[in-house]
């Protein structure tokens, strides 16, 4: 199978050969060629397809009528607002998750790690909805589902048992959340969480919204358990809005320990100041991935299932202007995230590393119009072709039937 007339990472015109879902050759072209049966790139850029490593497919309302935001600030009030409203959605969780995942794939995402909320109110209903979406799109996208105690592990009875059940029935990752501020018992929260991870031999992903030194306190407890259980390369910290707002020496120590234990970071490119510096994380060898978080849900009206849009937001919130740094955001949004889901993939070597389109790589490719990769981030054109495992799964931001 051939993809002709493309410019990998904005380089010279080339032809990409694919066999058994992997890139087997990349050959430079002198001019555009017309080959029957090939995917014609028409001179567009070829980029590695996106990996969304932090989204909440169980809460999305993309595709449904816009509804005014009714939540009040703070995690618990937001959880309660969601709890009061999600059952009134016009579609089931499975229908909403399937639609949104389809929109994500259609716009260039072929690897996803999604949370599925599990709590005393919804039980496994939302988790099962996300599993249904994964099943529907199994030939178009790889999906990992996180069993996620959004309302805490300890505040309401029976939650660890439900998470345990989900991990035995299709969840690939166990999630934790704000061990200090939500459950107010960080040691017990993390002992239950890492106990479940150890029992099921699955990775851990912790939502951390805690401020400054309190967040550092939780992170140190996470690092302690990562070491004790030999879970190097098995832990991701999501958000961590405030870990860059503490002293420089503490930030440096955390970045070094993340690199040493291969603890990865998932960011959703928030507006807040104080996040750990992206370029320093990469330079230190910490895997960083990007995600869209909740998308047009009961938590937030933002998100549109387009990771190219979120890549723009990552560049914008980092105040990047140089092409190298904006292209680095593309590398984070694609192979950075993929390397969190598949630890056999190497970490990004530097801010100028542009992996994902070499011989041997899985042929998950986005073709998109743009003079350069940076221009594509700025313009976010709609003339896109999405390939997963060397097969075209979407054209012009619409899914192909099969
Ligand atoms: Zn989130």
TrEMBL record:
Which residue intervals define the domain Amidohydrolase in the entry?
96-393
As one GO molecular function, the record gives: hydrolase activity, acting on carbon-nitrogen (but not peptide) bonds, in cyclic amidines
Pfam families noted in UniProt: Amidohydro_3
Protein name, per record = Cytosine/adenosine deaminase
**NCBIfam families, per database record:** PRK05985.1
InterPro entries per the record? Answer: Amidohydro_3 (IPR013108), Metal-dep_hydrolase_composite (IPR011059), Metal_Hydrolase (IPR032466), Metallo-hydrolase_Enzymes (IPR052349)
């Amino acid at each position: 199978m051939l993809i002709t007339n493309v410019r990998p990472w904005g380089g010279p015109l080339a032809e990409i050969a694919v066999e058994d879902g992997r890139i087997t050759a990349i050959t430079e072209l002198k001019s555009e060629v017309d080959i029957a049966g090939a995917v014609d790139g028409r001179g567009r850029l070829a980029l590695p397809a996106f990996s969304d490593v932090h989204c909440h497919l169980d809460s999305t309302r993309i595709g449904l009528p816009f509804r005014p935001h009714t939540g009040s600030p703070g995690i618990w009030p937001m959880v309660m607002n969601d709890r009061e409203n999600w059952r009134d959605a016009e579609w089931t969780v499975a229908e909403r998750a399937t639609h949104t995942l389809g929109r994500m794939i259609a716009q260039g995402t072929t690897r996803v790690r999604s949370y599925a909320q599990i709590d005393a109110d919804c039980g496994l209903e939302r988790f099962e909805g996300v599993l249904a979406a994964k099943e529907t799109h199994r030939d178009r996208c790889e999906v990992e589902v996180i069993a996620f105690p959004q309302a805490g592990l300890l505040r309401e009875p029976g939650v660890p048992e439900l998470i345990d059940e989900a991990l035995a029935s299709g969840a690939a990752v166990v999630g934790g959340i704000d061990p200090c501020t939500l459950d107010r018992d960080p040691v017990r929260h993390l002992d239950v969480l890492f106990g479940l991870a150890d029992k099921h031999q699955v990775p851990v992903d912790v939502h951390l919204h805690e401020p400054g030194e309190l967040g550092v306190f939780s992170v140190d407890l996470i690092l302690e358990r990562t070491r004790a259980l030999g879970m190097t390369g098995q832990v991701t910290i999501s958000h961590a809005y405030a870990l860059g707002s503490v002293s420089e020496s503490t930030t440096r120590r955390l970045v070094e320990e993340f690199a040493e234990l291969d603890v990865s970071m998932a960011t959703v490119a928030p507006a807040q100041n104080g996040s750990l510096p992206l370029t320093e994380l990469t330079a230190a060898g910490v895997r960083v991935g990007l995600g869209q978080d909740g998308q047009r849900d009961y938590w937030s009206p933002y998100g549109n299932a387009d990771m190219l849009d979120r890549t723009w937001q990552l560049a914008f919130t980092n105040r990047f202007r140089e092409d190298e740094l904006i292209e680095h955001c593309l590398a984070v949004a694609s192979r950075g995230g993929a390397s969190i889901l598949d630890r056999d993939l190497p970490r990004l070597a530097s801010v100028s590393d542009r992996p994902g389109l070499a011989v041997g790589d899985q042929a998950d490719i986005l073709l998109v119009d743009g003079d350069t990769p940076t221009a594509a981030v700025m313009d976010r054109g709609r003339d896109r072709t999405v390939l997963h495992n060397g097969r075209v799964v979407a054209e012009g931001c619409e899914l192909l039937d099969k």
